[in-house]
Amino acid sequence: MSTPQARTFRRAVTIKDVARLSGVSPATVTRVMRGRGSVREETRHRVEEAVRILGYRPNHIARALVTRSSSTVGLLLPSSGDSFWGEVAAGIEERASEAGFSVLFANAHGSETREHDMIELFLSKGVDGIIIAGAAGGPQTWFGSRDPRVPIVLVNWDATFRAQDLEAAAVLPAGDMTAAIARETSGSDGIIHIVFDDPGGVAMLVEHLLQLGHTRIAFVGGTAIRPALLRILGFRQALEGAGLRHSAIVGCEESLDGGNDAALSILSGPDPPTAIVAYSDLVAIGVMRGARTLERRVPEDVSVVGFNDIEVAAFLEPPLTTVRQPMREMGWQAMARILDSLAGRPTPPYEAMPGTLMVRRSTGSAAAVSPSTQGR
């Protein structure tokens, strides 16, 4: 009759074991593991070697019970498969890693209900902060009440507006509407906002076109969300500042088909624009397709500019002039705001980050536009 083989249990390695092997105090091991405080290089190497030999892994659950901090943040994205938000997430992860934090991911897919559910899930996990990117909803739909000790940062809040607001953006005083949207964004229930300077980005594009001699400039695209309204308003402000009026503002879905259909409409009408500002690069690609359908050359017959600088923008023919948003930097700053709040450091409630104009071959001189294409 065989006897059962005795089970052997290995005691978990503790921070005291690492300290004993490396000849330092547990506090010194903690400073090395967290990358904080002043530690001599020789000491750091001894601790790291002891960690390697013993196979030490920090017990995050035990640490959280003692410090009341999980060293995690929740990140809610519209879609992790979107290259734009992937860059934002990379910036968040970079800053989080530097601070010894982990990131929990979830996708909202544009659903306010799912945003609410995922935020509740993050809070139930005991996260130290929450970053919500491209949110469709707002505080009134996310919380019954919320713990003010858990800081929340919004990145490029895509809050929806009424369709009438989109129509109003084309005719009402642009400066007043822009200021009102900024006030609403920056005053939302104590939540911190990191946004792109949409009006400033469009102004760069319009200024570029004006320098090329264009005076008949149209805007294409935009649904009733905050960035779309701000881009239309920025477009109008830039033209009005130059003493000009827009050729047309044509709304369409943010899609290739939307841009294509809008271009077919405005380029086949009387006195068509010599330049088109598209709401996004995706819409701009559709506009270029519509122009080709009408046998209009880009940029010889019509200049086209986009927005965002997605990866394919530089590989189109011709390559697309656009505005690059500081996607990774916005993510890095969002995580930095979480850390500032947790440390009790003063935190600006609102920051609009500037973009970079990427001039490529989809724009050209208005003087080069053939008169034969202007009214056909």
Summarize the structure.
By secondary structure, the chain is of the alpha/beta class. The protein has helices spanning 15-22, 26-34, 41-54, 60-67, 83-98, 112-124, 139-142, 163-168, 174-186, 198-211, 226-241, 256-267, 281-293, 327-342, and strands spanning 72-77, 102-107, 129-133, 152-155, 192-196, 217-220, 248-250, 275-278, 303-305, 322-324, 350-353, 356-358. The longest helix is centred in the N-terminal third of the chain and has 16 residues, at 83-98.
Q: What is the domain total for the residues?
A: 3
Oligomer: single chain
CATH topology of the largest domain: Rossmann fold
Strand fraction equals 5-15%
Low-pLDDT segments, ≥5 res? 1-9
Structural class: alpha/beta
- Major sheet attributes: 6 strands, parallel
Number of helices: 14
Order of helices and strands: HHHHEHEHEHEHHEHEHEHEHEEHEE
Strand order in the sheet with the most strands:
2-1-3-4-5-11
Kindly provide the name of the CATH class of the largest domain: Alpha Beta
Distance between the termini: 100 Å
Radius of gyration: 27 Å
What's the pLDDT, averaged over the residues?
Answer: 85
**CATH H-level superfamily of the largest domain:** Response regulator
> What's the count of strands?
12
Overall body shape? elongated
